[in-house]
Each structure stands twice: as structure tokens, then as C-alpha cells.
Amino acid sequence: MRVCLAALFLFCLIAPARADIYNCDITPKGTGDWLPTRLLVDHTPHAQTADVWDPLIKYFVGKPMTARVVTENPKRVTIAWEITRLTNTQGQGRQYTPALAFRATILKPSLKVVIRSKPRGYPNGYLGQGACRIR
Questions:
Q1: Beta carbons within 10 angstroms of residue 61's beta carbon
Q2: Residue 61 CB contacts under 8 Å (≥ 6 apart), including other chains
Q3: Are the C-beta atoms of residues 4 and 27 closer than 8 Å to each other?
Q4: 3 state SS of 54
Q5: Where in the chain does DSSP place strands (E)?
Q6: pTM
Q7: Cα gap 133→2, rounded to integer Å
Q8: pLDDT 10s digit of each residue in the chain, 135 long?
């Protein structure tokens, strides 16, 4: 019996953790020009990084990005990432920011998401909220 329990314990330690893929729909609050309306987060529990993908990343980077896990506990996971060297040619003039910083928090029990973006070098920021599904 002890051998079986020890083997089961060792198996749990070496078995790869299952990744959670959060598929989130986001509604910007106010002007949300620099917020995604959809966010995919591929996160393995207790990992230091997660992969993120959204329409802005698709347009400016072309492939999923690695985000840093800022906080993870039973209630939430918070991740942060930046898209660098952005140029906006829409509207009047040409706007440039060295980076657009994102921070998203997914509340695990309710699967609600809150996302913020802030262009580096500018005083304004953007806020959005939404709901996620786990795929």
C-alpha cells in the first residue's frame, strides 16, 4: 500500500501540468482604441510565463507573445506584456510610442477579466472588462 501511495505521489510530481487556455471577450470602457476585443491566454498553472494572442499582437507582432505571470493564486492570475515600437498612421498625423504595456487579471472563480493598457511616454491609459471561457 505504501509503495502504491509513494508511486502515485511521484507520478503527480513528474506529470506535466495541464495548460489552461482562456478565451476572453473584452469590452473597452470609454475609448478603447488600444485594447483588444478578444484575448487568448495559454497558461500552465504555477508557470512564470504565459502565451498571449490578440488582434493587436496579430497586427503588430504577427505571432503569439510571451507574457510574464505577475501574480497567481487560487483567486486570480495576473499577466503583463508589452508590444514595442508602435506607430499609428491612422487619423491626423503620425503617432509613435516606444511600447504599449498591458496587464490582464483573470479572476479564476468567475472567469471575469480586467485588462489595462498604457502607452509608455503618455499620461493616458485604457481599461476594459469581460468574460473568459476555458478551452
A1: 13
A2: 83
A3: no
A4: coil
A5: 20-29, 38-43, 49-53, 65-72, 76-88, 95-107, 112-119, 126-134
A6: 0.80
A7: 40
A8: 444 333 333 334 444 567 889 999 999 987 767 899 999 999 999 999 999 999 999 988 999 999 999 999 999 999 999 998 777 666 565 666 788 999 999 999 999 999 999 988 888 899 999 999 998
Q: Are strands 112-119 and 126-134 parallel, antiparallel or unpaired?
A: antiparallel
**In this structure, are residues 85 and 67 in contact, taking their beta carbons and an 8 Å threshold?**
no
CB 61 within 8 A of CB 124: no
Triad 106, 47, 99: Cα angle to 5°: 65
**CB within 8 A of 70, min separation 6: which ones?**
78, 79, 80, 103
Helix, strand, or coil here: 93? Answer: coil
Q: Where are the alpha helices (DSSP H) in 1-135?
A: 2-14, 55-60
